[in-house]
């Protein structure tokens, strides 16, 4: 029989919390991605990896906070631990691929299309892999049009976020971009959930796996720790907040003192006074 699906069993609490987590992960990830292009090239992989982990952790946390409010009448919902962890790994790895593409090739058209596509597919894969980890007394079916729409929204959101990271216009710019990204990612989630149809079997067999409270609560400690770490790094790095590159330092060679151009005033060329030109005759004189 058709099961009644409710994605808002706690009212607006879970959607709002999910949206805030998506915004937090997006804001920290975008600032770390921007910072990767402002410092030494040797630090770029570390900043890009932290940015990818922040975005992936934020999207994953958003998804499962929203799933806390998802219920189906007539059957309990349990989650498989391995599939849930695999969805987190997919999110971080595929977001990382997209972030590294834009981080090294710049916010150009080809890089944005490739990186946004990979990142968006990673977000969508995380969502549907997490849904595949659900276990209930019934059969889950999806509306193909709604699923395709959720994937398109995910790719558009990822491309817009990576483009915003390449602009480096300051902290407020990234905050605004993260609010838009959080709205798009949360919208992608609920569009995907609108595609779900559950046919309940009505048997007495218990579902395998663990309940959402028993599994997802402790499992969120890792992604939240990543977000806290990224937040500390952002707060204590002024370049991340200001969005400006450090002033270039002059290269100092051994044995040569470093002087700034202000130490020596510009030398004006001295004009040499020239008198009337004397012409000497080369004609031999007669004696």
Automatic annotation (TrEMBL):
The chain crosses the membrane at residues 12-34, 46-70, 82-104, 111-130, 142-164, 171-192, 212-236. It holds the Pfam family MHYT. It comes from the Bacteria. Residues 250-287 are annotated as: Disordered. Residues 10-199 form the MHYT domain. InterPro entries: MHYT_dom (IPR005330). Keywords: Membrane, Transmembrane, Transmembrane helix. Signal peptide: none annotated. This is MHYT domain-containing protein. It comes from Streptomyces thermocarboxydus.
């Amino acid at each position: 029989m058709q099961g009644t699906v409710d994605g808002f069993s706690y009212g607006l609490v879970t959607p709002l919390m999910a949206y805030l987590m998506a915004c937090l992960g997006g804001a920290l990830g975008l600032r770390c991605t921007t910072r990767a292009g402002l410092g030494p090239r040797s630090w770029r992989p570390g900043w890009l990896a932290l940015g990818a982990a922040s975005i992936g952790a934020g999207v994953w946390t958003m998804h499962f906070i929203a799933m806390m409010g998802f219920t189906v009448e007539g059957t309990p919902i349990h989650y498989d631990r391995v599939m849930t962890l695999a969805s987190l790994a997919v999110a971080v790895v595929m977001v990382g691929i997209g972030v590294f593409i834009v981080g090294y090739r710049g916010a150009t058209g080809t890089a944005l299309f490739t990186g946004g596509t990979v990142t968006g597919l990673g977000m969508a894969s995380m969502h549907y892999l997490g849904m595949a980890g659900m276990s209930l007394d019934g059969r889950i079916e999806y509306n193909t049009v709604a699923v395709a729409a959720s994937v398109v929204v995910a790719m558009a959101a990822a491309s817009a976020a990576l483009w915003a990271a390449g602009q480096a216009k300051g902290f407020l710019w990234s905050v605004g971009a993260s609010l838009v990204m959080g709205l798009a990612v949360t919208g992608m989630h609920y569009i995907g959930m609108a595609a779900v149809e559950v046919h309940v079997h009505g048997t007495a067999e218990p579902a395998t796996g663990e309940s959402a409270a028993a599994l997802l609560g402790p499992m969120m400690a890792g992604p939240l720790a990543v977000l806290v770490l990224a937040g500390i790094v952002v707060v204590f790095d002024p370049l991340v907040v200001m969005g400006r590159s450090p002033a270039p330092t002059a290269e100092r060679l051994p044995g040569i003192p470093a002087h700034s151009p202000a130490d020596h005033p510009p030398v004006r060329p001295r004009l040499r006074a020239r008198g009337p030109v004397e012409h000497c005759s080369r004609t031999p004189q007669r004696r």
